[in-house]
């Protein structure tokens, strides 16, 4: 049973299916891609992991390649340029809805069950499996329960009631498309400004420019709370915050309020002490949600989903979960607070699907 039909959950189900393991996805929301957010960059290591399970082409069809990263200051002056890493695919820019929608479509084409409106409220473990209890009064039975239910994971608290929750990064996220601003963006490049006035932007073939921006806020707001304020008013606040930024001021001024994407609070997850218990295990943002600045959230979730499937393919759950944590914890925690989004050790990571997984030797 895969609890959560987001990026991590869909990739896990696809990878498990390839491993010969039946999977069933249970998604809390009543519709696919609910609250899917704005644009994201899918780092090369995430796209490479999708290749391992044959899902790269369905996602790649939606993504805009941006192999080069250009660091700029608030005056628009180029500080440094980093080309793509030889031998690995380029970073792709796409909306979270496009990424998730393509993955769900691939899940459906493979005949993997995907149940909507199934909000988990409790779990019962038995000698031979796990029982999931949902808010609609139904239950589901399985051999293993994978908690891919996001940064506010219910499964995480079932595994460990004292597990940490998300930490607010102090800003809200927004995205949009600026019309007729192609002169600001070099083709095939992601331009990044860091600091208190952070901005990411890239050019589309039609001359428009996509952008990602943050707005400081003393308290976190959910996507639903952000939506209570009109897009036009948020754009007004963004214009004031980016008034002295080049080209941020112009990009925001050329953005239609109707196309503003309001993401909500930017958050990260501190190190989670326990990733598994019994026949339950955490995956994706439920176990590791890195700093938004890392550009690695989706990629690391995809990597972990593929690695978990490999472990369950080769080992029983009691041995698979320790092996999964052993191969993932150090990597995700080392990448979690990266400042350099082009770090070669991060983006050049490769998973060998065919390699056998060995049990972890326990000591003590």
TrEMBL record:
Keyword Oxidoreductase among UniProt keywords: yes
Keyword Oxidoreductase attributed: yes
InterPro entries per UniProt: FAD-bd (IPR002938), FAD-dep_Monooxygenase_BioMet (IPR050493), FAD/NAD-bd_sf (IPR036188)
UniProt-recorded Gene Ontology molecular function terms: FAD binding; monooxygenase activity
Keywords: Monooxygenase, Oxidoreductase
Domain FAD-binding residue range list: 2-181, 273-334
Pfam families: FAD_binding_3
Gene3D superfamilies: FAD/NAD(P)-binding domain
Protein name as it appears in the record: FAD-binding domain-containing protein
Organism expressing this protein natively: Nocardia terpenica
Lineage: Bacteria, Bacillati, Actinomycetota, Actinomycetes, Mycobacteriales
